[in-house]
Amino acid sequence: MININSNIFDLKVNNSAKLFYVYLQHTKALEKSNAHYADYFEVSTMTITNWLKELTDKKLINITYNLNKRKIKINE
């Protein structure tokens, strides 16, 4: 069973970004590159960048960097 943060449905976030958020929650694929996500969703890397920004702006995720490695953390 997927435990989805129900607040995401109330926020003004692009529906595709919501789907991406659910994907991140479900797969725990939080250290992949934008190119990996873009290939999976069949979108551009810029689209992934925009989705990540939307989710970060709404405080649904937090992104940190350590030695040029990105780590996405889902805010519960």
SSE blueprint:
Elements (H helix, E strand, L loop, with lengths): L14 H13 L6 H8 L3 H13 L3 E6 L2 E6 L2
Antiparallel strand pairs: 1-2
3D architecture notes:
With 76 residues, the protein is an alpha+beta fold. It has three helices and two strands. The protein has helices spanning 15-27, 34-41, 45-57; strands spanning 61-66, 69-74. The chain has a two-stranded antiparallel sheet with strand order 1-2. β1 and β2 (69-74) form a beta hairpin. The longest helix is centred in the first third of the chain and has 13 residues, at 15-27. It is globular, with a radius of gyration of 12 Å.
Percent range of helical residues: 40-55%
> Which segments are poorly predicted (pLDDT under 50) over 5 or more consecutive residues?
none
The sequence of SSEs as H and E is HHHEE
Derived from helix and strand composition plus strand pairing, the structural class reads: alpha+beta
Strand content: 15-25%
Radius of gyration: 12 Å
Strand order of the main beta sheet, please? 1-2
Distance between the termini: 16 Å
How can the largest sheet be summarized? Answer: 2 strands, antiparallel
Q: Quote the average pLDDT.
A: 88
Strand segment tally: 2
**Separate helix tally:** 3
What is the global morphology? globular
Keyphrases for this structure?
globular; two-stranded antiparallel sheet; alpha+beta; 16% strand; 76 residues; single chain
